Amino acid sequence: MGGSIMSNRRKFLMQSVLGSGSIALGILPQELFASGELVKLTVMHTNDMHCHIDPFPEDDTEYPGKGGMVRIASLVSQCRKENPNFMLLDAGDMFQGTPYFNYFKGDLMMKVMSKMGYDAGTIGNHEFDNGMGDILSAAKQASFPLVSSNYDFSDTILAEHVKSHLILKKGGLKIGIYGLGIELDGLVGKLNFGNTRYLNPLETALKMERMLKKDHSCDLVICLSHLGYSYQTDKISDIVLAPQTKYTDLFIGGHTHTFLEKPAILKNAEGKPILVNQAGWAALSTGKIEFVFDRSGKMKAPIPVVSNL
Amino acid sequence: MRHLITAICAILLTFSCSPHLSVFQINTRNIPIDIQTSQIDSSVQSIVTPFHDSIEHDMSKRITVSASALVKGKPESKLTNLMADILIEFGTDFCSKQKMNIKPDVSYINYGGLRASLPQGEITVGRIFGLMPFENEIVLIKISGEAIRQMAERIALRGGEGIAGMKIGISDKKLVSLKIGGKEVDLNATYWLMTNDYIANGGDQMSMFLNPMDRINTKMKFRDLLIQALSDQYKKNGILDVKLDGRIYNEQ
What we know:
Shape of chain B: globular
CATH superfamily of the largest domain in chain A: Metallo-dependent phosphatases
Helix content of chain A: 10-25%
Oligomer: heterodimer
CATH class of the largest domain in chain A: Alpha Beta
CATH topology of chain B: 5'-nucleotidase,  domain 2
Largest sheet of chain A: 6 strands, mixed
CATH topology of the largest domain in chain A: Purple Acid Phosphatase, chain A, domain 2
Helix content of chain B: 25-40%
């Protein structure tokens, strides 16, 4: 598995979807990056880590010795060294799952995630497990912002502490980020989410992506979603929502603990590709996505080509 | 003059290129995290180690020994049955110690709330944290036979969960038989149900538990109870040997 990925490394073209196969681009000339005509942004992402800071024990029945934020951290620091334009994002459910949470609440998680240099995270349903006081404490401790666009916290203690959207700048690129959370009613005790208002995720997404792309001219728009990858029912999910968007480039998902071999490539409302990814749970997987931008305007590629690293 | 040039340059820039860049290539890889793909980062580990060491003594404490692995499954399983049995036994004991003139009839534990299996052999405190990470407290609620029937229907739809004090027959995800304490359920009677506060507050789609006729908060955390009950049982009875008893069954 690992071997075949390596031998196929950079081998063009795993998914020649959407009729883009005519653009023959495999290894891009390094001169174009050096001259600044091309610029690369590397995004790494996690979700549903559930305080799995350590790898699973060696005698675990399902995941012996696997996973662990301490392992992801080494990949992150290596990747950051190799890629100056680097972002690390999380799609929620950082909390709850190992004794670290029972003993230290979100404190150790925030220390570890801050050390790893996360750029942003969103709020999953398990973030509410100890009530909003612990989310506030996490938001204050974290060296990175929490973003949620469809939880309206304005009548809660989190009002000033969670962003509705973010614009990050990396190597001259503007990256817009918004966050979508799952409906709390029936999933989280009412006392734990208090006066949080749940806004329609689709309406919120359309509003956020338009604002980030059109008003703020972001080069890339990313949604951190804790809605879940897909459901058998008609419940809103990433797979249902992503095709209805226009300006979002990537959905980084969570909640359903879905392991994907590679990101799903869907068509958005304008027929352009949108990526939907999720990296399992318990720090057992991490997603790595490189976006190459053309600054010169010479590369006539109306639809981006997607390949496997 | 300088201002004018700046202004002209700004206008030229604005019109000479599109407001944002376009992506023209995307490369992706989802990386499994294991010893082959990644080393342990020493700088992060050094933050974690003092926290790890401070709880290791608590976590490694042995509380019982199981004759078999306890894995959750449907319609019933050793793990779900054991959890529900511990819950109802605690309730009976709690009510008698509090000199309450009531006795729990049934218990319910949500399948999704059990987050890990228990191994054959030694079971440590750490394993119980893995199984039950949540800080949920145990509550008693007084509800109608009708509400119990609705709960049983939902359990049938899900193919089974953790119950004690009742017997449920399922056919094609539908409830076909419901007995409480060996008798047919009386929809107009009232029953006492033991569960956790997450469920009693209507979590996991169990809205039939909202607005009970009465509610008693025991202030006991389910995890603390599991640790206490399993170690008491081990001291009293030795090796834990859970058997299935057909409390939830699929009708042919």
